[in-house]
Design brief:
Elements (H helix, E strand, L loop, with lengths): L3 E2 L2 E2 L5 H9 L5 H19 L2 E2 L3 H17 L10 E5 L26 H8 L3 E6 L11 E2 L3 E2 L15 H9 L4 E6 L5 H7 L2 E4 L20 H6 L1 E6 L2 H11 L23 E4 L10 H16 L3 E4 L3 H19 L2 H7 L2 H18 L5 H22 L3 E6 L15 H10 L1 H9 L3 E9 L2 E8 L5 H14 L8 H5 L1
Parallel strand pairs: 4-5, 4-8, 11-12, 11-13
Antiparallel strand pairs: 1-2, 3-5, 6-7, 8-10, 9-10, 9-14, 13-15, 14-15
Helix pairs in contact: 2-3, 2-5, 5-6, 10-12, 10-13, 10-15, 12-14
């Protein structure tokens, strides 16, 4: 056996193709693991997307998968499919370092619920993906593991905080990656690297850490906005990752005992929003939205331009609710964080002060959460069960590396540009980032937003965009000439 089937190497296969090939014995899980480990060895030195890769453990998992195939019987859906997990999420026997040097030896006693779901689905856990310290930048670098580069261009961010996950998926190191998202940390990296990234409805994928892990009193914004979600090279990869990560869990303060439907079809109403009253989008960004709208109309969906200023209002609330709570954690970040995260957050707080003033009051905070409920109700009524919203992912193309460290003026621009990223967590809705091709050598894409628990609708519409958008893998030619 070689690491190819036909003229396509194994690392270019989708999760569905890999799982089917292993079940049908077209190739073994061990061959798949070796092919992806070889791809990691080929591409990761240039990108620094994955850390703590233990080849012997990967091959042992693959051997167990091959034994399960030989034994026969029902096989789990991701058997032998390589998946990465993020350094801020517990995986048994691996450090949950959060990119913090002082926590390099904080080995998890067991898997977080979403990782346990992937393991139960038969996935081969191949490596840990890099993230900024404390996962609070749209750029991926930390003093413990170093900087992750964008596979398309090293001068632009791979996104953050799940930048390592997105870079690894785009480069073919894994077909699926686990990430998490409180302000765009799944969707924005997918956009920057030309992958697909899904932020599920809050409560759908459990955020519960394993027993024995250090307990963290999660702020209210974390409970209401933070989610785990999958990244993948294809929409179907993301669909399969989601269904493996969904772990109904009432131990989660916002967990719900539900699972999304497996699929959806039919005509959907698509409301197109270029600008929610925050900042005018870059021409390349508007062009991507126009392309996606045209493709969806061609696919038979009902497409109309609308104005939804409520999305801009939700984005502004994000900078109040999240940043006010992050400021209560600054003593720990100041003690353990690196210079980049400290400087980035300080600049972020000053940018938010331009919106909310230097010292927002408790009344501002309380009224902010009250307004959040009203926005959720109004937008849920607008969406119903058959409408989604098409927006930019960000109002700019992928940012230049470390743009958040370029001064307060630039940080203010970044904060405004990320309104599509910020609005969704405040609402708790699901959203998916879908690539639309390349513009000026960098990935472009759009975001689809749905009502609560409408992941199936988003995946259905995302598939129509994927079917029409030009796709290609990054060649990393810049690394070869560096």
């Amino acid at each position: 056996m070689t690491d190819t089937t036909g003229d396509k190497p194994l690392w270019e296969h989708s999760a569905a193709e890999l799982a089917a090939g292993i079940r049908e014995k077209s190739f073994s899980a061990t061959e798949v693991a070796r092919a992806f480990l070889a791809r990691v060895e080929e591409t990761n030195p240039a990108l620094n997307a994955l850390v703590d890769i233990r080849a012997e453990e990967v091959l042992a998992q693959a051997a167990d998968a091959d034994a399960a195939v030989a034994a026969g019987g029902d096989l789990p859906p991701l058997l032998g499919v390589p998946v990465s997990t993020k350094i801020n999420t517990s995986q048994r026997g691996y450090a949950s370092s959060h990119g913090v040097a002082a926590w390099a030896d904080a080995v998890a006693p067991d898997d977080a619920a979403c990782v346990a779901g992937l393991r139960k689905a038969g996935a081969t856990l191949l490596g840990r993906s890099n993230s900024p310290a404390f996962a609070v930048r749209w750029f991926t670098a930390n003093d413990l593991h170093g900087k992750t580069l964008n596979p398309w261009h090293p001068g632009h961010t791979p996104g953050g905080s799940s930048g390592g996950a997105a870079a690894a998926v785009a480069a073919g190191m894994t077909p699926i990656a686990q990430g998490n998202d409180i302000g765009g940390s799944v969707r924005f990296p997918a956009y920057c690297c030309g992958a697909v990234g899904l932020r599920p409805t809050v409560g759908l994928v459990s955020s519960v850490e394993p027993r024995g892990a250090e307990e963290f009193d999660s702020p209210l914004s974390f409970q209401t906005m933070a989610v785990h979600g999958p990244l993948g090279w294809t929409v179907d990869d993301v669909r399969r990752g989601l269904h493996s990560m969904v772990t109904p869990d009432l131990n989660d303060p916002v967990g719900l005992p539900v699972r999304p439907p497996l699929g959806e079809s039919g005509r959907v109403k698509v409301a197109v929003v270029h600008d929610a009253g925050v900042v005018e989008p870059h021409l390349a960004v508007s062009a991507a939205v126009d392309d996606a709208a045209r493709w969806l109309a061609e696919a038979g969906h009902e497409v109309e331009e609308v104005e939804l200023p409520q999305l801009g209002e939700a984005a502004r609330l994000w900078s109040l609710l999240l940043y006010q709570e992050l400021q209560t954690m600054m003593s720990e970040i100041e003690t353990f964080g690196d210079d980049a995260v400290r400087n980035s957050l300080a600049s972020s707080f000053r940018a938010a002060a331009e919106i909310w003033g230097e010292q927002p009051t408790l009344t501002d905070y309380i009224r902010g959460y009250a307004r959040r409920g009203t926005l959720i109700r109004r937008l849920q009524q607008f969406l119903g069960q058959e409408r989604i919203v098409l927006t930019p992912v960000a109002a700019e193309p992928p940012f230049e590396q470390d743009a958040d460290l370029a001064g307060d003026a630039r940080m203010g621009e970044l904060l405004a540009a990320q309104w599509p990223m910020q609005a969704v967590p405040v609402l708790g809705f699901p959203a998916i980032s879908v690539p639309t091709g390349l513009r000026d050598g960098l990935p472009s894409g759009v975001q689809l937003i749905g009502g609560r628990f409408q992941e199936d609708l988003l995946l259905h519409v995302a598939t129509a965009i994927e079917a029409r958008a030009p796709r290609t893998r990054p060649t990393l030619s810049w690394a070869q000439t560096a």
